[in-house]
């Protein structure tokens, strides 16, 4: 495969990713499900006044807005302009916060530019993990902090991706599953000896968004880009569509707590650039 062909395939892949995250209503999910993760990551990274922060794959800005509220000067970057527009509209006035379209695997920032580089359930969806990790390290100042939140492979969201995987086309060669970012060993391999003072732990996000398994299925079928793509891929096959319905409903049935909530396991990672 020639270099020009590889570049064209990569561009096509990024265009599909950009379009996928613009589907449905991810801002609603950001508000109703995952909003607490941004402030959690900001506290873990000890972000405060005077720091320059880059939030990679920022989406609608749950982490970026929290970092700016803490007094930092923040750049929120994301591949999908529709998510940036939603974040810009929901951000309070007066914060030191800019919104810029950028590819997590090819960030348009100089080396050693930021005191803190963060990503909350964002960079994990970049298709080539090592490229994205290399960029996080490159733009962080020596001694600066890299902080990440990622869904774990065995947690509720990781299991949801496993349920959906049989219903979508196989990814191109070299593309790695997003929940691998929630595996400690995978992160140690990605960052190697370029970081020190690692703090890694798994925690639970308790979600009370859903009234039951069917509500969960319809919510993700309508609002979440990756799930919408799966349904569209099987739109002409009622049997496969019904199979996807069952897979999501059964996952939810297995995961409901006695009080009706669900626990979504995530990995929280912080480290200093060596």
From TrEMBL:
Residues 53-144 form the Methyltransferase domain. One of its GO terms (molecular function) is methyltransferase activity. One of its GO terms (biological process) is methylation. Keywords: Methyltransferase, Transferase. The keyword Methyltransferase applies. The keyword Transcription does not apply. It holds the Pfam family Methyltransf_25. This is Methyltransferase domain-containing protein.
